[in-house]
Amino acid sequence: MVGMTTRREGPAGPRRARPQGKRERFRRGPPRGEGDDRVVLYGWHPVMQALANEGRSLHRLLATENALARLTEAVGSLRVVPELVRPSAINALLGPDAVHQGLYLEADALPAPDLDALPDDALLLALDQITDPHNVGAIVRTAAAFGVAGIVTTARHSPNATGVMAKSASGGLEHVPLVIVRNLAEALIELGERGFTRIGLDSEAETSLDAVGPKRPAVIVLGAEGKGLRQRTRETCDVLARIDFTGEIRSLNVSNAAAIALYALRPRA
């Protein structure tokens, strides 16, 4: 499963905190196995945003002493009793390459809304088999910055909203829901029937993105790097648009392309 981390026991276990002033309880014990609907989040922004999201059910928080002090100052009262641990304990769970910044959280996955639950005037993104969790996470972060109402993606050929993807999203998952559909083309057809303008990004398109202009409701359709949009996905778009470049490089990382498209199609003041 893409983006998930494999748990293993490490020699360094949780240790009891010795806080100054008011005494706080800390749970102890080895990591528990995840349930089917449980995800792992780590790093400052993903954990902080999840703790601030009342709609996210929390199960277990591991934190180093410095990270816990910073987190308590930023969030205030925590919704889950933390375990105070050394960094090595989190390394043992995530692996030494994970940039966890002293924070590890087990939580329930956020509920995925149905397609018909999205607002009729929404701006959406649709991902056509974009599988790299770093790219998807960066797209989620950008979508949160531009007020995107949801990201439509398929159950297959897409990463899970946990681990690496959540870290790359930098807390954006708490603000932009992932709408999981069985078939992307059929979902785009349904959105078209509801009045959404379907704008597919294509580097070879005849129409410039600048010529499309702001539209609502709308869905911007992004294809995987290298492959681009699949043929059936292209056929469901109302317009294919290109990003105009002035330099020698004529292509961008898909997350960068998403940011440019969202900026270009934003409502003008």
TrEMBL record:
Look up the domain of life of the source.
Answer: Bacteria
The record, for Gene3D superfamilies, names: 3.30.1330.30, 3.40.1280.10
Basic and acidic residues bias spans: 1-10
> Where does this protein have compositionally biased stretches of type Basic residues?
15-30
Q: Name one GO molecular function term.
A: methyltransferase activity
Q: Which UniProt keywords apply?
A: Methyltransferase, Transferase
Q: What is this protein called?
A: tRNA/rRNA methyltransferase
Q: Where is the RNA 2-O ribose methyltransferase substrate binding domain?
A: 40-113
